[in-house]
Amino acid sequence: MMTDFTPAERIWHTIRLIPEGKVAAYGQIADLAGLPGRARLVGRCLKFVPPEHPVPWFRVLRSNGQIAFPAASEYANEQIAKLQDEGVIVKHHRVAMKQYQWQPDLPTLLYQLDFNMSIG
Questions:
Q1: What is the pLDDT along the chain (120 residues), one digit of tens a residue?
Q2: Whether the Cβ atoms of residue 44 and residue 36 lie closer than 8 Å to each other
Q3: Could you give the angle at the alpha carbon of 37 between the alpha carbons of 65 and 52, nearest 5°?
Q4: What share of the chain is helix, strand, coil (3-state, %, to 5)?
Q5: What is the distance of C-alpha 44 from the center of its chain?
Q6: Which residues are 31's β-sheet partners?
Q7: How far apart, in Å, are the Cα atoms of 31 and each of 7, 34, 38, 49, 80?
Q8: Domain layout of the chain by residue ranges
Q9: Which residues pair with 60 in a beta bridge?
Q10: Do residues 63 and 27 lie in contact, with contact meaning Cβ atoms separated by under 8 Å?
């Protein structure tokens, strides 16, 4: 069980499981990390990823598929380029979540996302 990880470690671990060519929403990551309702915490934790443990931050979007960074900003352009490199189509600063959203399979949910207890 992974309940002894910090909330940030749980979030980073969950994001690392998103396969290439797929995306997830901030709230979805919070839920899968056992931190329901903590979508904003996901965004904050992405600011503090240790360089020695990279996380594919660019695969995390708003629930409507929108890039969270301002349009044409350096980070938005970088995120769009990284997503496109993985085959994800970005139109008008948005990704079609129905097409690209990660849906973890049962083994992933049971064995790689074993966060049974929420953290206050």
A1: 455 789 999 999 999 999 999 999 999 999 999 999 999 999 999 999 988 989 999 999 999 999 999 999 999 999 999 999 999 999 999 999 999 999 999 888 888 887 654 444
A2: no
A3: 70
A4: 40, 10, 50
A5: 12
A6: none
A7: 12, 5, 8, 19, 24
A8: 7-112
A9: 24
A10: yes
Q: For residue 9, what is the enclosing H or E element?
A: helix 7-16
Sign of CA dihedral 83, 84, 88, 93: positive
CATH for 7-112 is 1.10.10.10
- For residue 90, what are the β-bridge partners? 95
Distance from C-alpha of 12 to C-alpha of 48, rounded to nearest angstrom: 10
pTM of the model: 0.90
Token pair for 116: 């049974």
